[in-house]
Amino acid sequence: MALLEELSTIDLAARDRLSFWNEIASRMVAPVRVQTASPDDFQGRMYRRRFRDIEIVSPCSSPARICSAEGANVGVLNLQLQHIGRSTNFTGGRHCELDEGDFVLYDPAQPLEVSFTEFTQVLTLRLPLAYTEERLPRLKQMVGIKMRGDSGASAIFSAFLRNTWRHLQTDDGDWADALDDVLWPLLDIAYAAERAEATDATRREERRRALFAVIEENLCDPDLDARRIARRLGVSARYIQMLFAELSTTPTAFIQRQRLELAARRLERDGAKAAITDVAFDVGFNDLSSFCRAFRRRFDVSPRDYRAGLRRSRVEAVALN
Fold first, then answer.
1. Structure pTM?
2. Rounded to the nearest 10 degrees, what angle do helices 237-246 and 251-270 cross at?
3. pLDDT (tens digit per residue) in 267-280
4. What's the CA gap between 81 and 30, in Å, rounded?
5. For the segment 125-166, what is each residue's pLDDT rounded down to a tens digit?
6. How far is residue 155's CA from residue 193's CA, in Å, rounded to a whole number?
7. Collapsed DSSP state (helix, strand, coil) of residue 63
8. Of the candidates 138, 159, 190, which is a domain's last residue?
């Protein structure tokens, strides 16, 4: 009895091979379109081994280009490990080159493109999405990130999966039934560092949103500065400065820019009814002359001329020329 389920194009007529391969690849891996420069020379072989909660599918084929089909939501995450050969991958908005042992996660519901110019074999670990989110809730954030097979914790996972595959071809003992229990912890370890970085990035983004909310809520307070924002968010003023440094600005410059934008909207909206002095103090400036200088630097005209529509006239004149 065969230890692995196997399907092959070898006995098919040349004209039927690619259509057959497209059908089994879409059914066993994910809905895809497989293209090749030489359809008549194409050859492929597909192996599959099912376990309790996961399955391993191993396509081997001559050079091809693989693209995801539209609406390919099949309820799984696929982990693609490069077993033989080399491939170029685009998924999750990221490009990566996989050498032997490297692996990458992809979500069949997202655009996918894989290409290779030599005989290639991959090991595709199909992970049920609902079960994955229960076991490793943040794993889906790792889609498209290349994991190296030659160093770190990812190398341990890679070596284990590749060695397991070799044994499955000759040994179908009771140990194979326990594979699910071993793979999940190893996968957790392999992505631990990447998940930590993603978590830090998510926290920074949450802090940044909270930061902007505090500024918007208190923009017209003339005492608003990095220290006051920090107290509201329960962090240090230095942390606030670092968040702004990532945006290539400073708290003072950002707050002033937002105040000037607000002032400009007021002047446009209210026109002659808007007193320049009132607008300056209403948006958080303590000094009229400082407001006028900053406004001119920002908009190339004085607040009075801006209120009169002079800046719009200049812009329209430039556009017409």
1. 0.63
2. 70
3. 988 888 889 999 99
4. 15
5. 999 988 888 888 888 888 999 999 999 999 999 999 999 998
6. 13
7. coil
8. 190
